[in-house]
Inverse folding.
């Protein structure tokens, strides 16, 4: 057989391999899963809730007319089994379509499940090739995952989209939250010297009203989904919560604060609101007298956003405000360090992982009892805050109002 003919037959053979997809499914045969919630019942079985898009309702752009039935934009199914995989498969007895999980946006883990441990859940997610790792993972606080996924949400018809976008926006503009994807969570679980964190989500208001479509037909909703700071893990188990200031302190230490708001007390009463910008941090380690110490340097720029006191923004007062603003951030950082050391003994900052990378010889002796070492290790925090903008006016008009009142 001639060489050109061999080439031709090879090309023809390859085209046969490219003419189809063995796993192709028709869109009408699929149920698009956008969120999964995982709880446990009294018997220890997994309760898996799946939020599935109702495509006909989402696609409908016309208003409801006489005799029209308004369906929910999503449907939530729940099944239970000894394993997450088993519960997911049992959903085929309820759903008329094949579950399609490649577009999942949120995984919501119930608080009680997280306290028992999440390694089995992550094992299932990492093994199933249909899951993509680009979804957020959160843990509930004072609510179940099913309750969170059953609340109708305003502005966004699909609650999973509301949860995804709210977490993204709050992380970027408020700072006591942190968006965590599957890959990051699993990495933090297996790294030596670093523990995971997840943002908490809760139901504010009356859940029973929230699961009714009327919840979004009123100007003020009776139930809303809200993110509530950061949950601390030790290994794969949830061990406690940070408050708002501590959650901000954590993100300052990690250098992940993009934008947030803080307050500085004025010398003569009242306060100034600062808009935090461009925060970054550097963490270093040293062995001093054979023991590890950590040094955290935080640099941040701020704008003066609101002045609720009588003050002249002179060079001296600005320097004083910068000092007070630095002290405020330093307090947040020290509070979260103290809490994670004394209450949780959980190194969510990755200080141990830093020592592992920079000083592997020292880490060999520290690794076995790292939690105990972390709990008493000296950690030094230094914050440098600088103001860049002061608004469109130099001083607050409050001072002029005060002077005017005195004249009268």
């Amino acid at each position: 057989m001639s060489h050109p003919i061999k080439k031709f037959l090879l090309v023809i053979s390859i085209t046969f391999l490219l003419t189809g997809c063995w796993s192709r499914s028709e869109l009408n045969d699929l149920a698009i899963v956008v969120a999964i919630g995982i709880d446990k019942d009294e018997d220890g079985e997994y309760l898996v809730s799946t939020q599935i898009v109702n495509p006909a309702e989402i696609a409908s752009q016309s208003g409801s007319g006489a005799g029209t039935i308004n369906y929910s934009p999503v449907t939530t199914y729940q099944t239970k089994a000894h394993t997450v995989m088993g519960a997911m498969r049992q959903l085929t007895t309820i759903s008329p379509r094949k579950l399609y999980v490649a577009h999942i946006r949120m995984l919501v883990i119930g608080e009680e499940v997280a306290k028992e441990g999440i390694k089995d859940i992550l094992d299932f997610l990492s093994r199933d090739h249909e899951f993509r790792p680009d979804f957020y993972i959160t843990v509930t606080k004072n609510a179940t995952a099913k309750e969170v996924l059953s609340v109708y949400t305003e502005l966004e018809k699909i609650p999973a989209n509301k949860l995804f976008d709210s977490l993204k926006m709050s992380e970027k503009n408020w700072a006591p939250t942190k968006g965590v994807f599957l890959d990051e969570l699993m990495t933090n679980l297996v790294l030596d010297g670093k523990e995971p964190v997840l943002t908490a989500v809760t139901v504010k208001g009356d859940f029973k009203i929230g699961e009714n479509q009327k919840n979004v037909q009123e100007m003020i909703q009776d139930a809303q989904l809200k993110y509530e700071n950061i949950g601390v893990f030790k290994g794969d188990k949830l061990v406690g919560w940070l408050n708002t200031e501590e959650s901000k302190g954590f993100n300052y230490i990690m250098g992940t604060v993009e934008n947030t708001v803080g307050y500085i007390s004025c010398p003569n009463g009242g306060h100034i609101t600062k808009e935090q910008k461009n925060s970054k941090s550097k963490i270093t380690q040293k062995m001093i007298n054979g023991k590890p110490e950590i040094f955290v340097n935080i640099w941040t720029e701020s704008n003066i956003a609101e002045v609720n006191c009588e003050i002249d923004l002179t060079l001296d007062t600005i320097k004083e405000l910068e000092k007070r603003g630095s002290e405020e951030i330093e307090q947040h950082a020290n509070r979260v360090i103290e809490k994670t050391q004394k209450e949780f003994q959980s190194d969510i900052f990755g200080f141990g992982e830093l020592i592992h990378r920079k000083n592997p010889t020292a880490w060999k002796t520290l690794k076995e009892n790292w939690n105990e070492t972390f709990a008493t290790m000296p950690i030094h925090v230094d914050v440098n805050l600088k103001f860049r903008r002061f608004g469109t006016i130099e001083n607050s008009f409050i001072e002029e109002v005060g002077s005017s009142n005195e004249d009268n």
Observations:
- The mean pLDDT is 88.
- Residues 27-54+72-241 form one domain.
- The longest helix spans residues 315-344.
- The first strand starts at residue 30 and ends at 40.
